[in-house]
Amino acid sequence: MNERKKLLITDIQNLLNSYDAVKTTSINPSLLEFMDENTLISIIDSLLAQKENHFKADEEWLEKFKKYDN
């Protein structure tokens, strides 16, 4: 497995571990090594989009809460 694929797999693992409510995730690289770099990048893009959507939902909730505080 080349170095770039190793980094992409590490990035996926780090993104999965960046969620507060999720236990630490460890990915066996051999499970993802059959995927090409574009597929791994697509997984990263998907995880980032999910994280952004989650952040926006939290932000909207906080804004509603702030309205009730006044």
Task: Give the SSE map.
Elements: H1 3-16, H2 29-32, H3 37-69
Helix pairs in contact: 1-3
Walk me through what this model shows.
The chain is mainly α and 70 residues long. Helix 1 packs parallel to helix 3. The chain is elongated and about 55 Å long. The protein starts with a helix and ends with a helix.
Question: Which descriptors apply to this entry?
Answer:
70 residues; 73% helix; mainly alpha
Write a brief structural summary.
Helices cover 73% and strands 0% of the residues. The protein is mostly helical and 70 residues long.
What is the overall silhouette? elongated
Indicate the mean pLDDT: 83
Total strand segments: 0
Order of helices and strands: HHH
